[in-house]
Amino acid sequence: IALTNTALLQLVASSRLLYGMARRELLPPALGRIGPSRQTPWVAIVIVGVVAAVLVATGGLATLADTTVLLLLTAFVVVNAAVLALRSDEVDHAHVTVPSALPWLGVVVSAALGIWSAWSNGWPVLVRYLGLLLLGLVVFWIQRAVAQHTGLLDVDDIDGLEPEKIRARRRDRS
Q: How confident is residue 78, by pLDDT bands cut at 50, 70 and 90?
């Protein structure tokens, strides 16, 4: 039951993540489409479901779970590194601060666990992990190239990520 619950949670969360990123124009807009009756991001749900089904069908549930662990640990490393990088930014509003030791600890522990997990699970998991990372990077690069070519939001335009500014850009393009 725990594995099924975790899989369901990840399917729901992944589709909503894709939807949110598409609404912020960081991923192709098709992923931000919602169904008229239930108001759910149906395109993102279908894509996440297809990817999950292919991964389970070609490697089994255990391999998918081990691959997911590696991807999550990578996300933890990136988030903690981002916290360290953003600490040097000057901001004019209240924000949360943490002692530097905590994000460093997060980077080191997550990276160590990721290396151990990759080493202990072998090649099938590592190949899937690297393939999914590469797929994510390819989608990112394509979306970035499209955004730069069409003059849409670019991921480097941090101010453009504010919802009001996104809505204004959409109105201006219409």
A: very high
Q: Give this prediction's pTM.
A: 0.71
b/e map of 103-133 (b: 16 or more CB within 10 Å)?
Answer: beebbeebbebbeebbeebeeebbebbeebe
Contacts of residue 65, Cβ cutoff 8 Å, sequence gap at least 6: 3
What the block records as the tokens of 96 is 């949360």
C-alpha to C-alpha distances, 77 to 14, 86, 117, 124, 142, nearest whole angstrom: 18, 14, 14, 22, 24
Average pLDDT over residues 59-88: 87
Nearest one of 84, 14, 9, 91 to 51, comparing CA atoms: 14
Predicted local distance difference test score (pLDDT) of residue 106 = 95
Q: Position 159: which residue type?
A: D
Q: Name the burial class of residue 1, with classes exposed (0-12), middle (13-18) and buried (19+) by CB atoms within 10 angstroms of its CB.
A: exposed
